[in-house]
Amino acid sequence: MSRDIDVLVLGGAGVDTIVHVPELPLPYADSYMIQPGIETRAGQTGDFVALGLHSLGLRTHHLDLLGDDPEGDLVRALHRDRGIPLTEVHQSSGTKRAVNLVGPDGRRLSLYDISRGREEDRLPERTVRDLAASSRHAHVSITHPCAFALPILREAGVTISTDLHDWDGENPYQEAFAYTADIVFVSTTRLPDHERTMRKIMENGRAEIVVATAGAEGAYVLYDGEVTHVPAVPPLTPVVDSNGAGDSFAAGFLYGRLAGEPVGRCALYGAVAGAYACTVPATRADAISRAQLLDQVPEPEAPAAAR
To answer: Which domain holds residue 218?
Structure first.
């Protein structure tokens, strides 16, 4: 069977409105005068993962629901301008949107508009099956319609990854994603004991690798029974915004995994890609290129006998 798609990205298409604020948390006030202003651009978690994978040279295809609205037009334009194939399913309630409050230190607080979704929303089974049949791997966003695509992907025989984002380790909503995927990414933000949660994911599901990202503290990788700490990589230019850093980490890690690299090197790729994302202003959608990534990750030394 021909596999002409390296990674099928499901879900996570939408737009963010960026609002720069003087501090986070933002104290109550009647009004604030802000700079550099308010700007709306395409790019939510699935868009950023797709962009990151595409920039690293992987054949990437994005599938999600989009509305016939200005926000949907922005998402379509992003994919068209970057050359990322997009299969869209009509969303009558509109394209997903969010407001990101961004502080001077690059931290963000996201407000998601959940009115842009319905209980009955689904990705068409035939479309998912056809695209999965042509894919090596699927990365699944934790949006409602994607939960129903998980069994279809499993039947298709593709490997699956997902990002649980700021899961608390207890909310049952994320469990279907956590226990179905082969590679699971999760943030440590709301985890009182990240190692316990990582092992819980592996014990209750089919994950081969669990990665817990911890921002400036780096990341933790559970593989082959061992938890390894991966230090953060200092970015080459100043940090301006953390938006999309986790998505970029996932893209870098998956690039290494699909290339057959050792898990430790995959995590290093992820750390470099995530650091690059922190140097990109929130008002732009950008990702590290393969050349930039490989330039920052030296080739491993050959064994002495091979020299």
So the answer is: 5-12+43-94+118-297
Count of Cβ atoms closer than 10 Å to residue 44 Cβ = 28
Which pLDDT value is given to residue 306? 44
Please compute Rg for the chain using Cα positions.
19
User: Where does the pLDDT of residue 123 fall: very low under 50, low under 70, confident under 90, or very high at 90 and above?
Assistant: very high
**What mean pLDDT is predicted for residues 5-16?**
97
Query: How far does Cα 198 stand from its chain's mean position?
Result: 18
The pair of structure tokens assigned to 230 is 């991966």
Q: Looking at the domain assignment, is residue 32 inside a domain?
A: no
Rounded CA gap, 230 and 232, in Å?
Answer: 7
Closest CA to 10 of 110, 135, 120: 135
Residue labelled with tokens 């308010």: 38
Q: What is the CATH number of the domain that holds 186?
A: 3.40.1190.20
Residue closest to 20 by CA, chosen among 109, 97, 114, 98 = 109
Q: State the Cα–Cα distance between residues 170 and 183, nearest whole angstrom.
A: 19
Q: Is residue 171 one of the residues assigned to a domain?
A: yes
Q: φ and ψ at 100, to 5 degrees?
A: -110, 115
Angle subtended at Cα 252 by Cα 56 and Cα 157, rounded to the nearest 5 degrees: 90
Return the pLDDT at 1.
52
Q: What is the pLDDT of residues 193-234, one digit of tens each?
A: 999 999 999 999 999 999 999 988 999 999 999 999 999 998
Distance CA 231, CA 214 (A): 9
Distance (Å, whole) CA 49 – CA 67: 20
CB 255 within 8 A of CB 58: yes
Q: Residue 48: which of 292, 250, 256, 267 has the closest Cα?
A: 250
H/E stretch holding 250 = helix 245-258
User: CA-to-CA distance for 122 and 119, rounded, in angstroms?
Assistant: 9
